Amino acid sequence: MPPITSASPHPDLVRIDHATPVAAPVVLIAKVRDEALRLPYFLGYYRRLGVRQFIFIANASRDSSIPLLLAEPDCIVYSTEASFAAANSGIAWINAVADAWARDRWVLLVDPDELLVWPDPRITTLPELADRLAWHGHQGLFTTMVDLYALSPLRTVTYRPGEPFLDHADYFDGDYIWRDRPGIPLLAPAWPPREPVGGPRIRLCYPEALLLAARRQRQHIAIAHALRRAGLPVAIPKYSAPPLQFKVPLVHWRSGARFLNCHRTQPIALPAMTGALLHFKFFQDFSARVEAAIGHGQYYNGSAEYHHYARLLAANPNLSLAYAGSRRYSSPDDLLAAGIVQPPRWPK
Q1: Can you give the pTM of this predicted structure?
Q2: Boundary (domain end) residue, out of 65, 93, 112
Q3: What is the pLDDT of residues 98-129, one digit of tens each?
Q4: Do residues 110 and 30 touch, judged by C-beta distance below 8 A?
């Protein structure tokens, strides 16, 4: 392993902690903006999975997130007031931090409302998972984003810091579909080539995501990005594209590794097994976070996604995400049964 550095990896970032770093095999990196509600359980969950080194990038965070993290001996904390949007939704910071701290290690990029699971009970920790992936020549893990929610109205959820997320949100949509991703043959082929589509956000805010028109919009965006990378001054279409329902969060950080955005990396070798990121966005703070996102406008396309959520909440203040296809989550086996994740098929 290369030596660990404490130098600032990016001009926007200032390190503010006094933690002693460790040469851990898996380095968890997370962006933080007012996440004090979820951080205590998030930290405990990933410590139980074997994470020994956390690196947080706190961007314009105003609640108690930063003091909370500074009190943790395994948490390195960078602070910045710079534009999240100008840093490609923070990806410029993340790549720089990974280069500085995680070369030849594994990087797990997750948000504080995301819990990684995988459908192989024989593998119980992240270092074990990383070892198994590396042994078989794999460089990362593909995951489906699975939104978890309560059956009751969102505003009635009473989550408190430190409680298990699943105690308050343990239902998911059971009718995801898989489809080929739009791309440009030869010029910019889609990677990953297939994607899951589903969940309450798609069902309620982007039902057109299942239609051909939405696929064409994504292809237009892909073409524009490819032409921009080729040096042509092409404008990126401002479609209100639905959020992608997958991420590649676990990556072996070798020379040249890069996250392209929070969902995709450069093409890498992936196993047949896929995991899931259980996504706990829908607690009692959802409405306030939607309002904040619209106010700062720093998320993709001026936080366009959050305008959809605001309209949904305005139409029904007692919004519940439950529907006839809701299924209760108890383990990754439930996701396997629904076809949302793929089983392990390790070579003999």
Answers
A1: 0.90
A2: 112
A3: 999 999 999 999 999 999 999 999 999 999 99
A4: yes
Report cis status (omega within 30 of 0) of the bond before 192: yes
Cα dist from 4 to 103, 139, 269, 318, whole Å: 9, 21, 26, 49
Q: Which residues does 125 contact at the CB level (< 8 Å), separation at least 6? A: 49, 50
Report the helix count and the strand count for the chain, using DSSP H and E: 9, 13
Answer whether residue 240 is part of any domain. Answer: yes
Say if residue 42 is in the same domain as residue 179: no
Q: Which residue bears the tokens 């401002």?
A: 238
Residues 224 and 247 in one domain: yes
Beta bridge partners of residue 14, listed in sequence order: 79
- 201 and 91 inside one domain: no
Give the domain range for residue 296. 114-343
Which of 200-219 are b and which e, b meaning 16 or more Cβ less than 10 Å from the residue's Cβ? bbbbebbeebeeeebbebbb
Residue 253's region, left for phi above 0, alpha for psi from -120 to 50, else beta, is: beta
